[in-house]
Design goal:
Blueprint: H1 21-33, H2 37-58, H3 64-88, H4 90-112, H5 127-146, H6 152-171, H7 178-181, E1 192-198, E2 201-209, H8 221-225, E3 232-238, E4 247-251, H9 259-265, H10 268-274, E5 278-282, H11 307-329, E6 335-340, H12 342-350, E7 359-363, H13 369-375, H14 379-387, H15 392-398, E8 416-421, H16 430-439, E9 443-446, H17 457-469
Parallel strand pairs: 4-5, 4-6, 6-7, 7-8, 8-9
Antiparallel strand pairs: 1-2, 2-3, 3-5
């Protein structure tokens, strides 16, 4: 597995964080700006988050959660100032302006206190970059806030199951021989196609039984197989009529999988109409119509940490089965893969199992799930897990069979492409750097964040470079 990205010297800490006055001022503006239940309905969350962040900053506490709450308070204060205008007038405008200032400041502080990595592009000290980073922090506040982290007896049981899972992987030889762990799917049968339309473009929704069953020897296998909606695979297919054209498989990120979200990220108007490509967009396990919780993606990166091994094993199976379906219908089809975030992880994982891909593009790609989860794990949980034998390093070893860093990519190196964000707060720069070192390929950086990907020029340039390098254009 690739070595961690090397750290550069950390920026000197400040003797006094004067910027704590900014969220404090915004909170005071909300507290003194109006009265009545309608005003306090708007003010409650911004005040709570902004006061918490300001006190923590004054106390020189730079925990990741502080920056997330700081950004979330500023975001909510800016947003809720709009309805508050009808209640408090100028006071709401003043509170909203200070909240917006606090929001941007949260992005700047978070970026400044992030470790610096050798080979990563330095985030520029610009208002636009700070705002993009702050939006990432706001979304992280939501993700971490709603995450179902095992606690109490469930946490202890999970740690014991982790040790048992590790033992089974070693006993069966799957920890060392990853190829023998993964099963090869056949082309699906009983395929159902439903015609759909999006912004004047016709496409098909394809569904069929996934056919995936986790290895029965593994803990949690029976529970995973019992999920009701997850076993049915879903694809969205955009196909041109006439002569065969190249195909681009687009793999969505965490908590996506709904058409409106995926099509805004992988724009059919650009990829299908302008570039002339056929598109195939799979829905990852537990996402979209396959979800088993209230939200798309529930129990994928939250809940029982051991579920992730089954989720990623099925994700690779499902992606390979989708390619088997495509190649069965169109022998000799040229297929490239473009994945973003969690989709970038799965695209790079697919590259370890399919040598016939024309190219792979990893956009702001997650590369080390254990690092990403432990980074946002509450300290009390981290200590408890460690006391019961489950550390970040051990969890990383458990996930080795589904890590894109554990096996070489099979397509030639020149067919592998990466882009990443210098101020990414969800997938920090060490992730694309690890994948870059593993692939021996450079990273194309843009001055933005995880969520600004839709508006960044570099993202389209890298995809167009991959298409051109494959001889498709």
């Amino acid at each position: 597995m690739s070595q961690p990205a090397a750290h550069l010297p950390q920026r000197p800490p400040r003797a006094f964080e004067w910027r704590a006055f900014i969220p404090l001022s915004a909170a005071i503006a909300w507290l003194g700006g109006g009265s009545g239940w309608a005003w306090w309905l708007c003010a409650a969350l911004p005040v709570a988050y902004l006061l918490t962040a300001s006190v923590a900053l004054f106390a020189k506490i730079h925990d990741l959660r502080v920056h997330q709450l700081h950004a979330a308070g500023g975001f909510l204060g800016s947003l809720l100032a709009i309805p508050a205008l009808f209640i408090g007038g100028g006071e709401a405008l003043f509170a909203g302006a200070l909240s917006a200032w606090a929001f941007v400041t949260a992005g700047r502080i978070a970026v400044e206190y992030e470790p610096r990595y050798h080979g990563a592009s330095e985030p520029e000290a610009r208002l636009s970059v700070d705002a993009k980073a702050a939006l990432d922090e706001t979304v992280l506040a939501y993700f971490v806030g709603v995450a179902k982290v095992p606690a109490g007896s469930s946490a202890e049981a999970m740690c014991l199951e982790a040790l048992r899972l590790e033992a089974v992987l070693k006993e069966q030889g799957w920890a060392g021989d990853i190829d023998s762990y993964h099963q090869t799917p056949r082309a699906p049968e009983a395929v159902v196609a439903e015609p759909q339309r999006w912004r004047g473009i016709d496409y098909e929704r394809i569904s069929y039984p996934s056919g995936f069953l986790p290895r029965p020897e593994l803990p949690g296998a029976a529970a995973w197989a019992a999920h009701p909606a997850n076993p049915r695979m879903q694809l969205r297919v955009f196909r041109h009529g006439g002569a065969p054209r190249p195909w681009l498989m687009c793999i969505h990120g965490y908590r996506m999988g709904a058409d409106w979200m995926d099509f805004s990220l992988f724009d059919p108007g650009w990829l299908h109409r302008k570039l002339g490509l056929n598109l195939i967009l799979p829905v990852l396990p537990l996402h979209g119509l396959r979800r088993i919780g209230r939200q798309s993606g529930d129990h994928y990166l939250d809940g029982d940490l051991l579920d992730l091994l089954h989720a990623q094993t099925q994700a690779l199976w499902d992606l390979r089965k989708a390619l088997a379906w495509l190649r069965d219908r169109e022998p000799g089809a040229q297929v490239g893969v473009y994945g973003v975030s969690l989709g970038g992880y799965n695209a790079s994982l697919l590259a370890t199992a399919d040598a016939d891909l024309s190219f792979v593009v990893g956009g702001v790609p997650l590369a080390d799930v254990a690092r990403a989860l432990w980074r946002n794990l509450p300290q009390v949980h981290e200590r408890f897990y460690a006391q019961h034998g489950l550390s970040e390093a051990r969890y990383r070893d458990i996930l080795r069979p589904v890590s894109p860093l554990a096996r070489p990519a099979l397509p030639a190196a020149e067919r592998l492409h990466l882009f990443a964000a210098s101020a990414d707060r969800l997938v920090t720069p060490d992730h694309p750097l690890k994948l870059s070192a593993h692939w021996q390929r450079p990273v194309h950086w843009y001055q933005g964040s995880h969520l600004s990907i839709r508006r960044e020029r570099v993202t389209r340039e890298v995809v167009e470079l991959a298409v051109k390098s494959a001889g498709w254009k």
